[in-house]
Amino acid sequence: MTETGVVIVGAGQAGCSAAVKLRNLGYDKPITLIGEEPHPPYQRPPLSKAYLLGEMSRERLFLRPESYYAEHNISLRLGAEVSELSAKDRTLVCGGETLSFEHVILTTGSTPRRLPEAIGGTLSGTHTIRGISDIDAIAPEFDSGRRLVIIGGGYIGLEVAAVAAKLELEVTLIEAAPRILQRVAAPETADFFRDLHQSKGVRILENTQLARVTGTEKVEGVELANGEEIPADFVVFGIGITPNTKLAEQAGLEVLNGIVTDNKGRTSDPRIWAAGDCATLPFKGTQIRLESVGNAINQAEIIAANIAGTETVYEPKPWFWSDQYDVKLQIAGLNAGYDQTISREGTNGVLSIWYYRDNALIAVDAMNDPRTYMVAKRLIESGKSPTPEVIRNPETDLKALLKA
Ligand code: FAD
Questions:
Q1: For residue 296, is pLDDT > 70?
Q2: Model's pTM, two decimal places?
Q3: Percent with pLDDT over 90 in the chain
Q4: Domain that holds residue 280
Q5: 9 lines ligand 1 (CB under 6 A)
Q6: Is residue 361 part of a domain?
Q7: Cystine design at 356: which of 42, 340, 348, 390 (Cβ 3.0–4.6 Å)?
Q8: Which mutation among 108, 242, 299 tests ligand 1's pocket best, with the greatest number of atoms within 8 A of CB?
Q9: Is residue 318 part of a domain?
């Protein structure tokens, strides 16, 4: 059996952040970082943006040069899946080898959902977007004039639509909910992006139920519940993700739509920690999952600090972004449970949507408005809440609110 200090399962955004932070904090025991993908840890956001568009090289996706890991005495095992985890024995199995651990950090990420096989969800020409290999598979499909149907009007579906429209494909996006971005944004933000996509020629069908993806071996199109058939050369699913919790379940850890962690990143076993997309964490009295780069990094770094000997509490400060065409959307805070929104419009297509719950500011969507985003982020993080009336007033100097 190989003796080792910290084993990190999942060499993605959170796993890499934990390993780097441990070394930066002077942790001097062995660190093993295990990933089932063949690539060194990389960032995923460009996969549905610049990388898919062909405007970014693969090397620029990597979070660290490959040499970094050996130089910092981090044993990086790629193309290696951890198949078993025992909390009781403090061991795990990777490629037939048993490793012991003092601490293990689960950073296993998530798996994109597909439609069921019975309604064509696994036909050739159907795709999900999670990793470099998905882009390698889908990139040859992105030729001008080809017909793409996207299922799901969340951020990933919309970003793929933007890339496809830019490359002059014929794009139809189908959303089952009454509107795009229903789960994550206010109607005003959805209206902004619907208008943007439609102005670029994307056909958006909301409140539209899918019957099945058609084709025998290769996808030929989609059939809607109302009987309409939309021909397609390929189909992309952007219908959400499922957290990868198999190992945690096997180890008997508490799992509830993600591996349950406390405010230090600990699971129900004190030697096992979890971070990133696979984990749920306490936030304002509930247990939530935050599917974002910012959360993956921050939660992983807090865990590293705790393993390195400090008792550090994680206080999430959610933020997110999305790039579509030449629009950058930046989101500060979390809008869950909002009961009021205020729109602030500026010149040159600048728009921000302010979310309130019980008259307290909880989140802001800023479109092409980095200044407003920065102010809003600082207001929310410091618990300051200008009244809706103040925000509604176009004369309000937002920056001055920080000093109030
Ligand atoms: P990941 O980065 O997914 O890493 C998990 C790794 O664990 C994977 O490599 C997986 O193969 C590996 N693994 C799983 N099980 C095992 C096992 N048993 N053994 C070994 N390895 C295993 N967030 C934003 O904030 N802004 C954005 O604009 C944005 N855009 C996105 C666009 C796309 C296309 C995608 C897919 C995600 C985007 N996200 C964005 C979300 C963000 O990338 C994720 O929240 C983040 O990557 C989560 O990090 P993670 O470490 O939890 O998971």
A1: yes
A2: 0.96
A3: 96
A4: 6-111+241-307
A5: yes
A6: yes
A7: 340
A8: 108
A9: no
